[in-house]
Design a protein that fits this description.
Largest sheet: none
Mean pLDDT: 92
Helix content: 55-70%
Radius of gyration: 17 Å
Structural class: mainly alpha
Shape: globular
Number of strands: 0
Length: 171
């Protein structure tokens, strides 16, 4: 079947394929569809299979600012029962090109997630946001000192450096 004739919904269905290569190619095709795939991707955020939910979220993050309408759904996904989905949502939030207070407050709370990978993705996302994430400094300082996981402490330290960097004016 030609990839040209397939639509986003067809590729989303392939995210459940038993063959990892098929799943990877479906994710690539969804990324290539870009903004046109966002509505179908958003409609799949409640898929029964957590691997599909994660793939959908990763793809939305790769689409970037063209998927900025996904931000409220990513805040909900931070509460998914599956840690991989929560981690993907935390990462995605740093790639959508939109920041607001509710998002920052939710990310700060997510620094306390029981899963270390979710906390690491959250700290990394806060760092990616940069100076706009100043309200997360206290929570990141605590994580950088007291988190049980070295990778979370390290990500929090990096985030603090990125948030504290002075803004460089564009020439």
């Amino acid at each position: 079947v030609s990839e040209q004739s397939l639509e986003a919904a067809d590729f989303i269905a392939l995210l459940e394929d038993a063959d990892g290569d098929v799943r990877w190619r479906a994710q690539q095709a969804l990324h290539d569809l870009g903004a046109s795939a966002v509505p179908d991707l958003m409609a799949s955020l409640n898929h029964r299979n957590p691997a599909v939910r994660k793939s959908v979220i990763v793809t939305l993050g790769r689409v970037g600012s063209a998927a900025c309408s996904a931000m409220p759904a990513m805040l909900v996904a931070l509460h998914d029962v599956n840690a991989d989905v929560r981690g993907a949502a935390a990462d995605c939030l740093g790639r959508l090109g939109v920041v607001n207070r509710a998002m920052l407050q939710t990310l700060v709370k997510t620094l306390s997630d029981p899963n270390a990978e979710v906390r690491r993705y959250t700290a990394t996302t806060l760092g990616r946001i940069g100076p706009q994430a100043r309200e997360a400094i206290t929570a990141l300082q605590i994580a950088s000192i007291s988190d049980i996981a070295v990778k979370v402490r390290s990500a929090a330290q990096s985030a603090l450096q990125r948030i504290s960097k002075p803004q460089v004016e564009a020439a």
